[in-house]
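queue> holo job accepted (zinc ion)
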Amino acid sequence: MSTSEPRLRIAMQKSGRLSEDTQKLLKLCGLKLNLTDRRLLAHVSNMPIEIMRVRSSDIPGLIMDGVCDLGIVGDNTLEEEELDRKLKGNKADYIRTTPLDFGGCRFSIAMPEEFEYTGLDCLNGLRFATTYPQLLNRFAKANGINVEFCLLKGSVEVAPRVGLADGICDLVSTGATLEANGLKEVAEVFRSKASLIQRAEGFTPAKQAILDTLLPRIHGVMKAKE
Ligand code: PRP
Ligand code: ZN
Ligand code: MG
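queue> job finished
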């Protein structure tokens, strides 16, 4: 690896909800990259940029720790990590460079279809499976209810059926996963979209120059889609 010139390091989701749209955006910005191979840190061939492909839940921390310069991540994942770090007294600084126009979804509480939902109060004392306990906890506190958690990193919708939890709190986009698992959405906790974020410490002039080239392109791509 030649490292004579500095490269702006961008973290993106390796696979999942945001990865396809993220790749599309970077390509439309004119970045030439080959993400078909198994290399997780890949150079962009025509710009001083490198792409690091990771699990989405690791992206906020990589920015907050200054390991990556830029990241593309869902607001839900970002806020969960921020809340979690603040609670533990850890560093949680970043700058939201720009909101993006993809990755829209709701983070919602869902209950078994037969559950008689009469309002948030009736959820008091119940147990919820979720990947984002901090977001749910903040919502519960703000609404004066107490909830318990069961942490699942995926396939959250399976939890009520197998007796792990009374309900779930997870991302809903089309609602197909809820329906297929006998659940109904009862309350929206958080509305999420993808965001471009950057580390809070300033960049070297060389890295800032790369960012100054990239950002107008990102805005241009979003404008063209409007
Ligand atoms: C996501 C999310 C929901 C589902 C929502 O899961 O966690 O389960 O998609 O989409 P829908 O409303 O259009 O059905 P994903 O497929 O990423 O799998 P995972 O939760 O197991 O990681
Ligand atoms: Zn190199
Ligand atoms: Mg899921």
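queue> The helical segments are 19-28, 59-64, 75-87, 133-142, 176-180, 205-225.
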